[in-house]
């Protein structure tokens, strides 16, 4: 396990988001991305909560933003180096963003994620 400074960890998350293709970033809608510095639910490195873009209908209005939460302690607990943390942050952020776009875990596995 490695301990990564909370500010540094947030920079890693921001870097992944900044690295998303511009077209993809523009399509993200009504979603808040946060870092939880305490341990999250057992076994989770990240969590998407909300209504994916592919499930939204014309009745989708006036709702709170979807949430993507990245769990710093959970990620740090499975990594040995800061480089491993950065790699896992990348994988976790992309995984949760994919859920926002309606891609489920089965399809992510098929795609190698």
TrEMBL record:
What CDD domains does the record point to?
MMP_ACEL2062
In terms of Pfam families, this protein maps to:
Zincin_1
Matching entries from Gene3D superfamilies are given as: 3.30.2010.20
**What is the recorded name of this protein?**
Metallopeptidase family protein
Traced from the root, the source organism's taxonomic lineage reads: Bacteria, Bacillati, Actinomycetota, Actinomycetes, Streptosporangiales
């Amino acid at each position: 396990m490695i301990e990564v400074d909370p500010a540094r960890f947030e920079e890693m998350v921001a870097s992944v988001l900044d690295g998303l293709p511009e077209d993809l970033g523009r399509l993200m809608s009504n979603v808040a991305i946060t870092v939880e510095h305490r341990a999250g639910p057992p076994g989770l490195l990240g969590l998407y909560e909300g209504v994916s873009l592919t499930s939204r209908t014309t009745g989708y209005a006036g709702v709170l933003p979807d949430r993507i939460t990245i769990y710093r302690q959970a990620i740090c607990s499975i990594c040995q180096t800061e480089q491993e943390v950065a790699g896992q942050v990348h994988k976790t952020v992309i995984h949760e963003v994919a859920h926002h776009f309606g891609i489920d875990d089965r399809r992510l596995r098929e795609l190698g994620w």
